[in-house]
Every structure is written in structure tokens, then in C-alpha cells.
Amino acid sequence: MEELVVTEGLTKTYGEIRAVDGLNLKVHSGEVFGFLGPNGAGKTTTIRILNTLTKPTSGGAWVSGFDVVKEPDKVKKVIGVVQQHISLDRDLTVRENMEFHARLHHLGASERKRRINELIDYVGLTEHADRIVEQLSGGMKRRAMIVNALLHQPDVLFLDEPTVGLDAQTRRRLWDLIRRLNHDGTTIFLTTHYIEEAEALCQRVGIIHLGRLISIGNPLALRQKLGLVTVETLVNNKDTRYQYFPDRVAASSYIQDLPHDVKTIIIRESNLEDVFVELTGQKVGDD
Amino acid sequence: MRRNWLRTLATSLMAPLLYLVAFGYGLGSGITIDGYSYLEFVIPGIIALTAMTSSFNGAAKLNVDRLFYKSFDECLMSPISLVSLAIGKTLIGVVRGLISSAALLAVALLISPLLIVSPLFVLVLVLSCFVFAFLGVFVALVAKSHQDMGNFSSLVLLPMTFLSSTFFSLSQLPEGLKSV
């Protein structure tokens, strides 16, 4: 399988702070790879290095075989980037933003027109294409940003926290779009601090903490490693304890042996948050 | 700009028109400098002032795009050279500067129909728009915050506004200050 994004010993320091610390990563063609970690873990710094916006302190990174430091112009042609912030020109319409972006990528007039109409239709923005960005809802702005990033048919689509600040319904619709894009052949590298987003979308997940990659694999394998069943018990009515078991039989036998004063017991499937907390001692949403 | 042209024009013309009224008609009525009425004397300076501030502010909007909206990152991630981007952003300021200056010039010609618009005047006006638009781009790229942009305007542009012979003849200054 072709490796579209590769980093080797990638490190970025700001003074004493190691924002990214010796990162080794491979993202394969056709997959949705999720970079999961709390705010400040180094996700955005990594994406900025891969997008040629920030230079690494040491180590290397390649996108579609092009070196992000030595061949930034070639990298720019093969990446599509959706930033965390709404980076569209708010005074322009969706179509005008796309026109501008397509010109930046040197698309010819007829190709521009064809691609813009095709993509607007693809994400269901046809009725809103000639509205000014400022007037659009949060979900529409995100979709407009995604189609902007797809105009020049990039090899990899980078999505930095694609659903941050969106309501649950809009988030799910955006997830469907991301799944559809991937199904239609787009390789996606996304960062998120939402556990459920990584679980819902990603074939593989890399967990990053304090700039270091602490675990990588598909969500099921990561959960299996921890134990697929979690037992939560409330001790002394205040301290929650978590125990992990390979299956419900093992969990049941553990519960039977619990002292009688343990009253609240929850048995549930383990999730990526459990994996994360066990690995880092920190919740994903924590700063 | 096409959508907000009226607002853009109104905001960039407000200060020069006020200067024209306050200094030209108000304070300066009855004063003559080098044989010209004070109003006629002050008009070219105010046009130059408009060119300077409009082109600088037009280009300096880049600072907001860079730090607040992050839309400049989109340009940086496209396969366009940095020099082309800088020229493009400078031209935004030049266009704004020229539009504001032209509008003010039209007003000035109504007030003082004898005003002579020589080719040299136009050339200097265009050059001045280029210089200050480029300065706007440069400062917008270097400034770490919007506050820094304001500081630059206060410390560099404001003194230039008042000390560059806009409102008075340099011959009126003491010898020491003239050389400054």
C-alpha cells in the first residue's frame, strides 16, 4: 500500500517546549487516519509542518514522496487543507471563494467552472453557492471549506478539527460527507480531540500526547489491547475506578468478587477515551 | 471591495475631507502662502496624505487576514511564489489608494478648479501608493498583533502626516527642524 504521508523523527521545538517530539508516522493511500489528542498535544503543529506552513526543527516529513522542507511547491500541489478556523473570505460568495482558490492553483477557465459546479453539487451547496460566506451556517461554511480544498484534486485532504464548534446534527452530516469522500477515493488525515469522531471515521488512529505518538493502530485493535469491556465502580461514593477485561465473562467474575459496599457498577464497552486515559492519565478534552 | 465600495470610500475620505474643511476653510481662511490661498496650498498635501493612508490601510488589512481569519495561510499553501503574493497584496493597497485619491481629487477640483494635475503629480501619486502599500504589506507580515499595526501608524504615519509640509510651508520652520 502506498504511503502518502511519512514522518521520521519529526521534531518541532519552541524554546524549551517540544511541540512535536520525534514523530514517526505513516499514512496509507485510501485511508482515513485520525490524529487524536488533547488541545496543545502537537496535532496542529504536525499538520502545519506537513502543509509547509511551519519548518521542523529536526527530522523529516514527506507527502506523496515530496519533502516538505526541500520541495514545498510540489507538496502544495498535492495537499488540500481545511483549517480549524473559517479561513474563507467572508465578503465573497462560496463560488467566488472557489474561483479565487482555483486561480491560486492555476486551474484553466473551463476546468475551473466544471470543477466548481461539480463540487458545489457534490456537497449539496448548489442553492447557497451565490450567498456571501458570512451569511452561511457553520456547517455550510465547513462544507464550503472542504470543497475549496478539493478543487485541485489533492492526493491527501488534511482536516484540522473539522467539526469543532458544530452542533451534533451538523457534525453527523459532516461525518457522512467525510465518509463519502473517502469512499470515493480521497485519503484523509484528520486531527480531532473528539473521541467519537475518531471512532466514527478513522480506519487508523494515532494518539499524540505532549508531542509524542504514544499509540497507533485501528480503533478496535487499540481497544482490544486495553480490554474490550470496561467495569466502572464507584468507591466510597466518590472515586470512580476503571477495570478492563477481554470479555464480559471475565468482567462478570470480577464483579462477583467485589466487596458488598461497592454499590454502583457499570459494565460497558471500552472506547478510545479509556485507551487514551490509560495511556496518558489525562482526559482527551483536558488542556 | 466591489460590495463595500461605498463604505470603503466613505471611511477613507472622511479624515481628508475633515482636514480640508477644518484647516482649509476654518483655520486657514484669510491665510495665504506663497501667493496661494491656504485652501489651495493644503489640497495637494491632503491628496498625498489620502494616498498614503488609504494604500497603507488597504494593504495592511493583510494583518487581520493573517492573524485573525488565517486566510493568508490559504495563499501560503497554494503554489504561488512569495514574491507574487507580496506584489498581489501590495496592488490591493495601490488600487485602494488610487481610488480614494482620485475621489478626493475630484472634490478638490470642484473646490479649486484652477488646480493643475500634471503628469508628474500623477506619477508621484502612483509611486507613493506603491511605496505605502508595500510598507503596509511589510508591516502586516512582521507585526505580531493588531496592536503593533496601530503602534506603527501612530509612531510613523502620524508624524509624517503632520511634519511633511502638508499643513504648513517648510520655510516657516526653524533651520534645525527643516533639516529633520
How would you describe this protein?
The complex is a heterodimer of chains A (287) and B (180). Chain A is α/β, with parallel strands linked by helices and 287 residues long. Chain A has helices at 43-50, 72-78, 94-104, 109-122, 138-150, 168-183, 195-201, 219-226, 248-256, 272-280; strands at 3-14, 17-28, 32-36, 58-63, 66-67, 79-82, 156-160, 187-192, 204-209, 212-217, 229-235, 239-245, 265-269. Helices cover 36% and strands 29% of the residues of chain A. A 6-stranded mixed β-sheet of chain A has the order 6-7-8-3-9-10, sandwiched between helices. A 4-stranded antiparallel β-sheet of chain A has the order 2-1-4-5, with helices on one face. Chain A has a 3-stranded antiparallel β-sheet with strand order 12-11-13. In chain A, strand 9 and strand 10 form a beta hairpin. The longest helix of chain A has 16 residues, at 168-183. Chain B is mainly alpha-helical. In chain B, 75% of the residues lie in helices and 2% in strands. Chain B has 8 helices and 2 strands, in the order H-E-E-H-H-H-H-H-H-H. Chain B has helices at residues 5-27, 38-60, 62-67, 71-76, 82-111, 119-142, 146-163, 175-179, and strands at residues 32-33, 36-37. In chain B, strand 1 (32-33) and strand 2 form a beta hairpin. Chain B is elongated and about 60 Å long. The chains are: A alpha/beta (287), B mainly alpha (180).
